[in-house]
């Protein structure tokens, strides 16, 4: 069996390299994702800053990337639903346009209603596509009419609940309706 002997010089070099790599990972990835601290702006470009849990009531964060060649938008949105309250997050979509979505909470299930309201309607009509109480959901839908489409989430727990919503499709962000 061969034995390897590592010199002190090699051990010190390896330790210094490992420490430098750890600092790079901390500054470029961990701080933006966990604490929304991004001195290099790499975290923002990689979409990591939206992962930082924003504890303020009703907070909203969004990053939009629009690919002009395909007319598809991609967004990662974080919203916080305050205790005992409900919020709505909406998108404007033309008839027959598609949206892929995935959302998840920080653990607590929420009552939600994925629905749409026709553009120009003054009667209060809306059409629900899905109603349930879940902590996450993934799917897609094609808008049956031009108008606003999105989610209503209600928090019946005793603490604020953060939601991360990831969407892709042909839409324009309306945003948070309270």
> Strand fraction band?
over 45%
The span between the termini is: 71 Å
Mean pLDDT: 84
Helix content: 10-25%
Name the helix and strand elements from N-terminus to C-terminus, one letter apiece: HHEEEEEEEEEE
Oligomer: single chain
pLDDT < 50 runs, ≥5 residues:
53-69
**Given the structure, what is the number of helices?**
2
Side-by-side strand order of the widest sheet: 1-2-9-4-7
Q: How big is the Rg?
A: 22 Å
- Tally of DSSP β-strands: 10
Secondary structure class reads alpha+beta
Tell me the major beta sheet: 5 strands, antiparallel
Shape: elongated
Could you describe the 3D structure shown?
By secondary structure, this protein is α+β, with helices and mostly antiparallel strands. It has two helices and ten strands. It has helices at 8-35, 42-45, and strands at 60-67, 72-81, 86-93, 98-105, 110-118, 127-134, 136-142, 147-154, 161-169, 172-177. The strands form two sheets. Strands 1-2-9-4-7 form a five-stranded antiparallel beta sheet, with no helix packed on it. It has a five-stranded antiparallel beta sheet with strand order 6-5-8-3-10, with no helix packed on it. Strand 1 (60-67) and strand 2 form a beta hairpin. The chain starts with 7 loop residues before the first helix and ends with a strand. Residues 53-69 have low confidence and may be disordered.
